[in-house]
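hiii so um. not sure if this is the right channel but i have a protein structure encoded as tokens and i wanna go backwards to a sequence. like what aa goes where. can anyone help
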């Protein structure tokens, strides 16, 4: 089946979240299963209807196996591809192909992690274990880490395009303003540009407030074919385009520190949807760090390369700004248990169903969801839309 035939052939019909923020005394599996049950119920289905599964975890290389066991399902389609935080955006295309091929009828995509309150392993211990099982031969000897890697990209963007720390701070403040409208967001205290600039420096030029939080959280969504979606409980949100791209693993192997593979995944996803950035009403980006938002706005075509700082300035992506971006508060202020791509998908669906409450973007019919994995390594873009966008 050609890409343009896949456009709108599958819809997200149920979403659910659990354990957002802190989930004391509960395991990652427990909160994920709660989110999965909510998503399946939201779709008007039962777990017996689920015959496809897509899931991944930083903590377990064979995560699909205990997930299937715990849920008590017998899936005919299984995808446990691990591309880091963008995995749950990237999982859409294989699921779409499986659904259209008739291999299954309802695919559950689910994720959960309790990075903040894990009773068995601290976040630092998880990072240490990951360094052992996923070594970076060119970088591990120099003790680089996630923050220093993203700081390199931020420093290069500042050098090359004149982007400032204040521009980065605009991203953090905009996310917080959206979070203040979201009762589920974990960090809702007021935040100013000055407070971001004065925060403890983690890796120059990134301060503590330029970095995502570490929280618990689980999410899930259900995909089914468009012909079936019309008869289910919720208003369908159609997948109009989806594509993934990987250009490198280590930050030192990134061809250009200011250009990500979002350029490729975005171009292919927009082509499949038959749309362009000017057609999009709401944007959900993986903001592990403030520089991410600027890079992805540029690489997805919402502004020219090098103009991301000016684009976000003066509240450009905050409530009431030129473009609604990260309307749940993002990984910077809402939730980030380690692989945030699940939550941007759920937020986009809620916006397109008109369920955003105080943060609802009026008349939203189209959304971009963009996930990031590794060290700006893996990128996955999805274009979602309501029936009006078909």
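sure thing!! here u go:
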């Amino acid at each position: 089946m050609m890409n343009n035939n896949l456009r709108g052939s599958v819809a997200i019909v149920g979403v659910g979240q659990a354990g957002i923020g802190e989930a004391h005394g509960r395991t990652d599996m427990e909160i994920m299963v709660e989110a999965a049950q909510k998503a399946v119920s939201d779709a008007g289905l039962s777990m017996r209807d689920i015959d496809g599964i897509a899931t991944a975890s930083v903590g377990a290389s064979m995560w699909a196996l205990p997930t299937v066991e715990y849920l008590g399902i017998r899936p005919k389609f299984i995808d446990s591809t691990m591309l880091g935080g963008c995995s749950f955006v990237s999982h859409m295309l294989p699921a779409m192909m499986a659904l259209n091929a008739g291999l299954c009828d309802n695919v559950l995509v689910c994720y959960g992690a309790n990075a903040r309150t894990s009773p068995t392993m601290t976040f630092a211990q998880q990072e240490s274990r990951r360094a052992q099982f996923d070594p970076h031969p060119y970088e591990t000897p120099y003790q680089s880490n996630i923050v220093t890697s993203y700081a390199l990209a931020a420093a290069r963007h500042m050098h090359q395009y004149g982007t400032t720390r204040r521009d980065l701070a605009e991203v953090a403040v905009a996310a917080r303003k959206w979070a203040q409208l979201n009762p589920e967001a974990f960090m809702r205290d007021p935040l100013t540009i000055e407070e971001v600039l004065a925060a403890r420096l983690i890796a120059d030029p990134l301060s503590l407030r330029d970095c995502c939080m570490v929280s618990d959280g689980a999410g899930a969504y259900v995909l089914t074919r468009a012909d079936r979606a019309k008869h289910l409980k919720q208003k369908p949100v159609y997948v109009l385009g989806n594509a993934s791209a990987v250009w490198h693993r280590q930050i030192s192997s990134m061809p250009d520190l200011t250009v990500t593979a979002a350029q490729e995944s975005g171009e292919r996803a927009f082509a499949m949807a038959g749309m362009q950035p000017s057609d999009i009403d709401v944007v959900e980006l993986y903001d592990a760090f403030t520089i991410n938002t600027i890079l992805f706005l540029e690489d997805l075509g919402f502004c020219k390369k090098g103009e991301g700082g000016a684009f976000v300035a003066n509240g450009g992506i905050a409530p009431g700004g030129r473009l609604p971006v990260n309307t749940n508060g993002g990984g910077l202020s809402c939730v980030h248990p380690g692989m945030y791509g699940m939550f941007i998908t759920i937020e986009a669906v809620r916006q397109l169903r008109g369920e955003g409450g105080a943060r609802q973007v009026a008349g939203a019919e189209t959304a971009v969801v963009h996930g990031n994995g590794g060290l700006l390594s893996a990128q996955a873009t999805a274009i979602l839309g309501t029936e009006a966008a078909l």
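oh and Residues 103 and 240 are 21 Å apart (CA to CA).
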